[in-house]
Design goal:
The protein has 153 residues and is mainly α. It is 76% helix and 0% strand.
Length: 153
């Protein structure tokens, strides 16, 4: 009897294939870093380590704030606070929260540190970070859906 239960649990295809949290965090960090490097390159600011880090840190802090809020939000939404499933690779709601916080917190920090927050920069940062942080999640979700459909067929 226990054997059939195990076989049933193993044979059922899961539609909720998830990436490890560390991989998701690494992809977000790479996306934010690529955004910063593209920006520094387009403004011919160079790639000296200290300059890159000065530009990068407000966005990393913003992304970390977004991750923290998304984590808490996942637990608050759950019926059992300690049994919730934090899935930061999802476009909605975690991806949107992380994107929003990355932009907002970074712009506030840049303003406070006199790094510049021209309206055009805020618009470009919002659009590009949205494309990067939401885009990879949408692509990953599409791949996961396709794999699930292929396994079911």
């Amino acid at each position: 009897m226990s054997r059939s239960r195990t076989a049933t649990a193993v044979d059922v295809p899961t539609s909720r294939a998830t990436l490890p949290v560390a991989v998701t965090a690494l992809i977000d960090f790479v996306a934010v870093t690529v955004f910063v490097l593209i920006g520094r390159s387009s403004h011919e600011e160079g790639f000296a380590l200290i300059g890159v880090l000065q530009t990068l840190w407000p966005f990393v802090v913003g992304a970390a704030a977004g991750w923290s809020i998304a984590y808490v939000f996942a637990h608050v939404r759950a019926s059992d606070f300690f049994a919730s499933e934090f899935r930061p690779e999802q476009v909605a709601s975690a991806g949107v929260i992380i994107w929003f916080c990355t932009v907002v917190v970074a712009m506030i920090l840049r303003y406070l540190m006199h790094q510049g927050v021209a309206t055009s920069f805020v618009i470009v940062a919002t659009v590009v970070l949205g494309a990067f942080l939401i885009g990879w999640r949408a692509v990953a979700a599409g791949i996961a859906r396709r794999r699930t459909a292929l396994r079911a067929a």
